[in-house]
Write a structure and sequence with these properties.
Layout (H helix, E strand, L loop, with lengths): L5 H7 L1 H14 L7 H35 L6 H20 L4 H4 L2 H19 L14 H5 L6
Helix pairs in contact: 1-2, 3-4, 3-6
């Protein structure tokens, strides 16, 4: 271990800190672990996975709203975006099955729906009131590649 303290190394050179922590774990050097920062980083990784899923969900819901409420402007690009978002959500769920619980959490889905609704209003230039205040789609629907095609 270098002369720089664990916390200072974490603050000064994150990459070096991660490599040092990985080496400590590999070698069973438990005393060299920066447990406080490791815990923070592990928790942040979990939140990052959750945010990634939410980001794809928001984009998917926005495009579904646009397709439903402005069908005359639907393009191949719109269809590609729907397909891509569904694929990315499926990838997230396959890589991290515990993320499924968020899609079953109506409050979590509604958080991303509210953002999608706002974004759909901006992109369509329609009043936000044009779109339902609550998510009109079931999880099974918005993940179904045949829904709103």
């Amino acid at each position: 271990m270098s002369k720089v303290s664990k916390a200072t190394l974490y603050d000064q050179d994150f990459l070096q800190w991660t490599q040092q922590q990985a080496e400590c774990l590999r070698n069973g050097c438990w005393a060299g672990l920066d447990v406080e920062n490791l815990v923070e980083e592990l928790e942040a990784l979990g939140r990052s996975e959750q945010r990634e899923l939410g980001s794809y969900l928001q984009l998917l819901l926005m495009h579904l709203l646009k397709c439903q409420y402005q069908p005359e402007r639907r393009t191949k690009s719109s269809d590609d975006t729907l397909s891509n978002c569904r694929d990315k959500i499926q990838d997230c769920l396959e890589d991290t099955p515990s993320l499924q619980r968020f899609l079953r959490d109506s409050e979590w889905v509604e958080k991303y729906y509210r953002r999608a609704r706002r974004d759909a209003a901006k992109e369509t230039q329609k009043p936000v009131e044009t779109f339902p205040t609550e998510c009109p789609y079931l999880v099974e629907q918005f993940l179904d590649s045949n829904f709103l095609v």
